[in-house]
Amino acid sequence: MSNCSTNCGKKAVLKRPKTGDVLCKECFFEAFETEVHFTISRAKLFTPGTTVAVAASGGKDSTVLAYVLKVLNERFNYGLKLVLLSIDEGITGYRDDSLDTVKRNRDDYGMPLKILSYKDLYGWTMDEIVAEIGRKNNCTFCGVFRRQALDRGAVLLNVDCLVTGHNADDIAETVLMNILRGDLARLNRCTAIKTDNGDGIPRVKPLKYTYEKEIVMYAYFKQLVYFSTECVFAPNAYRGHARVLLKDMEKIDPSVIMNIIHSGETLKVHEEVVMPTLMKCSRCSYVSSQTVCKACVLLEGLNRGLPKLGIGKSSKAKRMIAEQNNRSVSDENIDYFYQSQMFSGRLSQLIAVVTGSLTALSDGMQYGWSSPALSVLQSPSSPIKFEDWHMVWLENLYMLGGFIGLPLTIYLLDKFGRKTCMLMAAVENLIAWILLGTATSIELLLFARFLAGFGADVNFVATPTYIAEIADKQIRGRLGSIIYIMMLIGILLIYSVGPFVSIAASSAIGASVVIIQLLTFSFMPKSPYYLLVKNNVEGARKSLQVLRPADEVEDELKEIAEVIKKENEERGRPLDLFKVKSYRKAFLIMTVLNVGQHFSGISVMLMNIHMILEDAASIISVSTAAIIFSALMLISCIVSAILIDKAGRKFLLYTSSFLTGISLLILASYFAAKNANVDVSNYNWLPILSVMLYAICFKWGLGLVPIVMTAELYPTNIKALGCAVADAMYIIGGGVSIFLFHALLERYGLEVPFFLFGFCCLFIGVFSIFVIPETKGRSLEEIQQMLKGNSITDTEKIHLLSSTGNGSYNVNYE
Fold it and tell me: What is the pLDDT of residue 484?
C-alpha cells in the first residue's frame, strides 16, 4: 500500500470506507476520534458535570464507544462521569459470553458497571420467551424489553444521559426498515442524534455518522477486546433484510449510507398528521403512547400462557370482549378470555396421555415382576427348573434389553414417529407377558425379560417425547408426570396380586393393560412436531385440530416450524459433551445421579423386596409389606412432584440422599448383627421400618430430581444427546448394581451390598451439596453460567421509582 494520504511519511495500512483515503494507523485514529468529537461538539450532546451511562453489550460498537468517550473525555476535558450499563437478555451461548467482555471493559477502562437482567425485570429470559413464542416474533419482545430495560437502568443509576453505540449503518438500516413498513412515526425520529421519550433522560448517538467498517478497523488496530458472535435469534430478524439491501447498495456507492441518513433527516411530518401523544403506562408508569405500554402487553401474554396474544392479538382479544359485552374491557374480561382459551382442547390431550401411558403401568409391573415371582419359581411345583443364578439374569436381562434397545430406539423414534414407537413398545410388552405366562423353560423366561426391558426403553423414550410435543405448556409438567405415576401404580399392582396368583394370572393382567392401550391409543393423534419434521404439514394440522382450539392451530403450526428450524441450525455434536465446560459438568452430574439412583439400591429393592423382607424376618407378612412399600413410593413421588418447585431440587436431593443412606445403613447393620449370630429378636421391627423409610426418602428426591434435572442442565442444542446419554448411564448403573448385589450377596451376605448402597447415598448427598447447582427458578442461561463456574448473586428485584407520575413501577416481577 502507498504512503499515508496526510503526507506524514508513514506507510498506509488501510483505506477508509467512508472517504477512500489511505491512512496509517495513527492518522486513522486521529481522523476517527476527531470526527466523533466533532459530532459531539456540533450537536452539543454533553455539558460538563454530566453523568453518562454507556449502553454496553460487549460488541464492537459499544466497546469502541466506551473507549473513545474515555479518550475524548480526557483529551478535551468534557467533564463527564462515565458508567457502563449492560442488559442481560438471557440468551445462552450469546449474552453470557458477551457479558464477560463487558466486565473486562469495566476493568480496562475503569468504569463502574451495572447489569440488569430480563429475568429480574420481567421474570422471563429470552431463551424462555423463544421457547414459548418461537423464532418468528422473538425480536419484537427483545426490542421492546431491551429499550425499556435500558431506560429503567438509567433511572436506577440516576444518570443524566444514556449513550448507545448506534452507528451510521444502523441508522440507515432503520430508515430503510421504517420506509418499507410505512412507519411514519418512527421514520420521523429515527435519525435524531438525541431523543427524549419523556422520562427526562435523553438518549444520544455519538457514532451516528461513523461507518460500521471503520469501527471494526478502529477496534482491530487498537486491539480492543470485544464480542463478535451474532445473536442466535437474529438471523430471522426483519432488520437483516434491510441490512442485506444496504450492503448491496454500499458495494456500488459507499456514500449511500450517509445519503440515506441525510434523506431521513430532511423528512418533515405534515402538520395535519396527528402524532401519538405520550402518557404514562397505567401498570408500570413507563412512558407510552398507549394506556398500557407494549412491554406490559407482551408480558401479560407471556404470564397468561398465551404469548401470541401479545403480538397483534391482545388488542383483538380486547375488541372481541368489548363487542360481545358492549362495555369497556376490564382485567376480569381479559382473564375470562385467556382462561377460556387456555382450557380448550385439553381433554383430548389428557385422553391421549393417559391411554398412551398405559404401557408404563405394564412396564412397572414388569419392573417389579421378579420379586413376587421368585417364590413361585423356586417352589417344588414350578414347571421350570430354576437355579439361583437364573434370578440374576432374569433381572439383568431386563436392564440389558433396555441398554441394547437405546440406540435402536433413537433411530426408530425418528424413522417411524413417537406414536408408532409407543404402539411397538406395547406389542413388545404384550409378547413378553404372553411368554412369561406360558413359558415352560428358563430360556423363554430370560428372552421374555430381555424383550420386556427392550420395550420399556422404547416406551420411556417415546412416551415422554410424545407428551412433550402434544401438551400445552401450562400442563406439560403435570401430564409428563403421569407416565412415572403409572409406572409406580404398576409396581403396586404386581406387588398386590403377584404373591397371591399364578405367574400366568399376573401375566394375563399385564397383557390386559397393554391390550387396552392398543385398542384406545391407536385412535389418538400423532405428534404434530414429528409430522412437521417429516414435512407432513396437512397431517400436523389435522393432529393439532384435535389437540388445540381451532383458532390456535395455524399459529401453533408456525411455532413448531420455527422450533424445528432452530434445532436443525443448532444441533449439538457428541464431542461437545466433553469439549464444552458447562456440558462436561452437566454430564458429570447426570452420570453421578443416574448411576447413583441404582447404587442407592432401587432396582435391587424393587426386584427383590420379597426376598429381602423374608430374610429380615419381618413382623408383618412379606406380601403386605411389599404393597405398603410400593404405595409409600407412589405417595412420596406425588408429594415430591408438588414440592419440587417450592422446596428446590437441591434440598430434596441431599435430604433424600442422606435419609435414604441412613435407612440402608440401618438395614445393613441389622443384617450384619443377625449374620454375626447376635440376638436381634427384639429388633425384628427394624428392617420393616428401614425399608418403609427407604421407600419414602428415595422417591422424595433421588427418585424424581434426576429426571427433572436432565432436561434443565442441558441447553436446547445438546438436550436430546444429553438425555440419551443420561438414559444409557441409568441403564448401565442398573445392570451393574444388580450384578454386584447378587455377587456380594452370595459371597458375604445381605449386609455388604446394603452397606455399599448406603455409603453411595451419603456420597450423593455430599456431591449434591458441593457440586450440583440449585436450578429452581433459574433460567437456562443462569444454569449454564453456574455450570461454567460463574457465580450468580441474587440480584435485587427492580422496583424503580419513576421520575414523574405516581412514583412507582407496579410490574409483577415474580
Answer: 81
Cell 440389558 belongs to residue: 400
Q: Which three cell numbers stand for residue 195?
A: 431523543
Q: Residue 59: phi, psi to the nearest 5?
A: -80, 180
From the list 294, 214, 295, 252, the residue with the least C-alpha distance to 19 is 214
Coil/strand/helix, residue 789: coil
Question: What letter would DSSP give residue 3?
Answer: B
- CB count in 10 Å sphere of residue 254: 16
Lookup: cell for 792: 450468580
| Distances, alpha carbon 645 to alpha carbons 131, 268, 371, 477, 508, in Å | 19, 55, 34, 11, 39
C-alpha cell at 774: 440449585
Q: Which of 122, 131, 113 is nearest to 149 (CA)?
A: 122
Q: Report the C-alpha gap between 399 and 456 in whole angstroms.
A: 9
CA angle 63, 65, 68 (to 5 degrees): 110
What torsion do the CA atoms of 254, 256, 257, 258 make, to the nearest 10 degrees? Answer: 100
Confirm if 457 and 426 have CB atoms less than 8 A apart: no
Rounded to whole angstroms, the Cα distance separating 527 from 467 reads: 8
pLDDT digits (tens, 9 = 90+) for 472-522: 766 665 677 788 889 889 989 998 898 888 889 999 999 999 999 999 999
pLDDT of 506: 92
Residues sharing a CB contact under 8 Å with residue 312, sequence separation 6 or more, in sequence order: none
Q: How far apart are CA 153 and CA 140, in angstroms?
A: 20
Q: Report the alpha-carbon distance of residue 361 to residue 669 in Å, rounded.
A: 34
Q: 0.90 cut: is pTM over it? A: no
Ordered structural domains, the chain, with CATH? 14-116+152-266 (3.40.50.620), 279-342 (no CATH), 344-524 (1.20.1250.20), 577-790 (1.20.1250.20)
| C-alpha torsion 514→515→521→523, nearest 10 | 170
Q: What are phi and psi of 124, to 5 degrees?
A: -135, 150
DSSP string, 694-755: HHHHIIIIITTHHHHHHHHHS-HHHHHHHHHHHHHHHHHHHHHHHHHHHHHHHHH-THHHHH
Q: How far apart are CA 253 and CA 412, in angstroms?
A: 55
Distance from first CA to last CA of the chain, Å, rounded? 60
How far apart are the C-alpha atoms of 637 and 639, rounded to whole Å? 6
Q: Tell me which residue of 467, 487, 489 sits closest to 478, measured CA to CA.
A: 467
Please work out, in degrees rounded to the nearest 5, the angle formed at the alpha carbon of residue 33 by the alpha carbons of 30 and 37.
130
Nine cell digits for residue 705: 430430581
Q: How far is CA 32 from CA 68, 69, 241, 584, in A?
A: 9, 12, 28, 44
Cα gap 311→129, rounded to integer Å? 13
Whats the size of the chain, residue-wise?
814
Query: Residue 457 CB: number of other CB atoms within 10 A?
Result: 27
Residue 384, number of CB atoms within 10 A of its CB: 15
Helices assigned H by DSSP within 223-330? 239-252, 256-266, 294-303, 313-325
User: What does the DSSP assignment read for 211-239?
Assistant: -HHHHHHHHHHHT-----PPPTTGGG-TH
All three cell numbers of 698, joined, read 428415595
Task: Read off the amino acid at residue 77.
Answer: N
Q: How many CB atoms lie within 10 A of CB 733?
A: 23
Buried residues in 664-700 as b, exposed as e (16+ CB within 10 A): bbbbbbbbbebeeeeebeeeeebbbebbbbbbbbbbb
Q: What is the pLDDT of residues 749-801, one digit of tens each?
A: 889 999 999 999 999 999 999 999 887 766 556 677 778 776 544 333 333 22
- Residue carrying the nine cell digits 382450557: 343
**Quick check: helix, strand or coil at residue 389?**
helix
